Amino acid sequence: MPALSQKIALVTGGTGGIGEAICTQLAEAGASLIVTYNSNAQKAEDLILSLPGGSQKHQAFHAPNTDPARLMALTQFLTEEYGQLDILVNNAGITTPVPHNDLDALTDEWIDRIFQTNFRGSFAMIRACKGLLLASGDALVVNISSVAGQTGIGSNVAYCASKAAMDSMTRSLARALAPTIRVVSVSPGWVLGEYAKQFDPAYIQTQTDLTPLGRLATPNDVANAVLALATTLTFTTGSIIPVDGGRPLR
Hints:
By secondary structure, this protein is an alpha/beta fold. It is built from nine helices and seven strands, in the order βαβααβαβαβααβααβ.
């Protein structure tokens, strides 16, 4: 029997590259998926159909993590449909490239948007799902963070700070919600996906050269860490799991 065949998993922002890889690996391990999306319903439905078991086993749900009404609707749906939640992956996140020395370009609006989604939205999702996670009796929350939270090197200053805040939240909630709910951050470095395509290939090559393992992460590298936490690293909580190829060593 697949390792997660009796598990219910919720992945926020599941239609992005990392989110899709996480959904695919959890589904292949047997979990039933609820994939939340912000605006692209068709992409979410296409993802559901691509997963093992398709729409008979998995569901898409419109629930931006910044919308309290939709979070309430989501938890009501989960309560009525499943009665519990075993795995929550906070993958939804936003950013925009702004040079760190250009303080005027990082507007208050963007600072607020980044923190509302990356930190406050992730906390709001955990808060909304707490009762369902407790009902599991052995639940896991994975926050998809970033090495930027440790190094202060990333797309902009607010993004780095939001991921540092997410890691701090992971530690705090791991203590507060133990032993019934484990909380862990998975912290990638550069990931080869849609965001990386916005940058000049020479810049991406520089980042590759600065990575001791000689390549950048793939979405599947991140998904592998999530799957391991759900299936084998079951005595881990409050940790920040790096998926960065050793990038901070340089």
